[in-house]
Amino acid sequence: MQLTGTDKERIDQAIAFAKAHRTEEYNHEKFVNLYKEAGVPYTEAAEKFCREWCGVLERVKLYPDSPNVVGDDGSELLIDIDFSFQIITYADDLKYWYDPDYTEGDDCDEIAKVVREKYGIETVPVASGGYYYPDKIWICPDGRLVAILPDDGPWHQRIYDNLYEFLYKELEDDFSAGKIEMVLDEKRIEGTLDERIATVVEFAKLHGGFHHCRLFADFYNRAPLDLSKLTAEQNLSDDAAAALVLEILQDNTPDYWNETTLPEIIQFVEE
Length: 271
Fold this sequence. Notes:
By secondary structure, this protein is α+β, with helices and mostly antiparallel strands.
């Protein structure tokens, strides 16, 4: 989806798109059991947060309007904006960020201790995320969020009324995204060059062709390769598609590399 308007308008459009194409539905029993296993209260505020945001932002990719990186060979590359978000889904992670005794002697025990003393034991961890360096995020009983960048220590707390406010702060100052995509399926590619190319062709066939696929090579693997040579053709045989994939890989191999760059990841996206 193309994003237009001011930074805030683009962020709002991106969130609306992500909510409309969430990759996982909220499973109440799963979260109840998760928090119970961790020994962390699954508060009403935490439940509301997880219910609203589960599967919304975890597999989002944001791209700028124009190339934003220059490769070592001088080529201009379009890489995704370094934003990530994850709702906590492991009991150890919940306990790690909640219980100071669990992390005694660890840098985290001071953070957990300060959060507990300042905001109370009903303030619980729910997620991590942000631009470039992800914050750890706790939610208070009144729904406010406490965000702390672990490297900054416990004294650099930022309070937000909701996740929208957090996203505006994280993205608005340097937000130049022109496009959002949701990764619906992904495969890491292994083997020889020929085996990898065969995997790429098989994956694309499974998802109706290359039109909604993104292919990444080991040379600057956050920049999707231009697949227009493939999408411009119709009814390609497997051999013809494989030959074009090889040609694209060769075109994107730096002159100073001794061998053709290998395909590493292929994704099927909603755009």
